[in-house]
Automatic annotation (TrEMBL):
CDD domains: Era, KH-II_Era. GO terms for biological process: ribosomal small subunit assembly. It is a peripheral membrane protein. This is GTPase Era. The keyword Lyase does not apply. The gene is era. It holds the Pfam family MMR_HSR1. Keywords: Cell membrane, Cytoplasm, GTP-binding, Membrane, Nucleotide-binding, Ribosome biogenesis, RNA-binding, rRNA-binding.
Length: 342
């Protein structure tokens, strides 16, 4: 039987697991002083079924909230890039949307077709693919993603949520079955919630990046605009605070984004960002879910989003949120104003 590349790097699960507990600490920040000729840089796709932990992993790797996380499946609708410069390497992560296997919500089929197209388009130009699964689990939804993975570039099997596995020996038969499914280049069991594990993942991915000059500055985290981050932040709070009640077809649109410069003559002034956002829901009843009793939920969405945006942007934020029903832009649309600190 021909030797698979996985034989060289996966001598045994035991060895992999022992390496995991001896995780090495790399230096935290990228070294912009590395001469361009010695730099590595490349695209890395994080793929996997909904809810497997892609956004959690990306955020842990990039060290900041770039993608959004929620218990609700399908919160990652956009292709999001997170950038991490570490040692001589610049990792440019592409977080692909999850797969939607059920088509129960009216009107979502087109959206899902789009998601699948995005997955394939994303994979066509990456240096390495991280295929995320939950350790010990492989269902039809995972199989659907696996079927789309390229065979002409390295695919690492990343078994996430290792912290939920009580007996690691139980993973042996599962791993054997996984290796028969695809010629994975490497097997990485980890927990996206453990910093040591995610740092170690960077060390593992590094050699797969081509030797080439960095594309972004050493301190860049994302090529997404602050405006985009603002819509993602409102969306995250929306889904977090509505739980499973709200269909994922709800979207957030940023209607206005104004950067106000610091006040002249006031050294302490950081300036302010004024944001007007609209949460668009499918039905009138969904609007009630978002607004909540006496507007409490909407107020919380606004306060939490504003607080986190202020932390991320390092400036004051004035956030105004509206809720609208897609079918009719009714006059009585609810409005929330979250005042900044004047
Ligand atoms: N116990 C445990 N939970 C995890 C781990 N990683 C992620 N989670 C949880 O899994 C859930 C889903 O995580 P996400 O990062 O939003 O998943 P996703 O794959 O980006 O989901 P979609 O946006 O739907 O594609 C969240 O509740 C996370 O807190 C882990 O290592 N251990």
């Amino acid at each position: 039987m021909p030797k698979s590349p996985a034989d060289d790097v996966n001598p045994s699960l035991d060895q992999m697991l022992s390496k995991l507990t001896m995780a090495r600490h790399g230096d935290a920040a990228g070294d912009a002083a590395v001469p361009a000729a010695q730099q590595r840089c490349g695209l890395i796709a994080i793929v996997g079924r909904p809810n497997v932990g892609k956004s959690t992993l990306l955020n842990a790797l990039v060290g900041q909230k770039v993608s959004i996380t929620s218990r609700k499946a399908q919160t990652t609708r956009h292709r999001i890039t997170g950038i991490c410069s570490h040692g001589d390497a610049q990792f440019v992560f592409v977080d692909t949307p999850g797969f939607q296997t059920r088509h129960t919500v009216r009107g979502t089929a087109a959206l899902n077709r789009n998601l699948n197209k995005t997955v394939q388009a994303t994979l066509s130009d990456v240096a390495v693919v991280l295929f995320l699964v939950e350790a010990g689990r492989f269902g039809p939804d995972d199989a659907q993603v696996l079927a789309l993975l390229p065979t002409d570039r390295p695919v690492l099997l990343v078994a996430n949520k290792l912290d939920l596995i009580h007996r690691r020996e139980d993973l042996f038969p599962w791993l054997q079955a996984m290796q028969e499914r695809h010629p994975f280049t490497q097997f990485v069991p980890l927990s996206a919630k453990k910093e040591d594990d995610t740092r170690r993942l960077l060390d593992i991915v590094r050699p797969y990046l081509p030797e080439q000059a960095w594309w972004y500055d050493a301190d860049a985290l994302t090529d997404r605009s602050d405006r985009f981050l603002a819509s993602e932040m409102v969306r995250e709070k929306l889904f977090r605070l509505t739980g499973d009640e709200l269909p994922y077809t709800s979207t957030v649109v940023i209607d206005q984004y104004t950067d106000e410069p610091p006040q002249p003559g006031n050294a302490k002034s950081t300036g302010m960002v004024r944001i007007a956002a609209t949460i668009i829901v499918e039905r009138e009843q969904h609007k009630g879910m978002v607004i909540g009793d006496k507007g409490e939920r909407l107020k919380r969405i606004g306060t939490e989003a504003r607080t986190e945006l202020e932390r991320l942007m390092g400036r004051k934020v004035f956030l105004e949120i509206w809720v609208k029903v897609r079918s009719g832009w009714a006059d009585d649309d609810a409005r929330l104003r979250t005042y900044g600190y004047e």
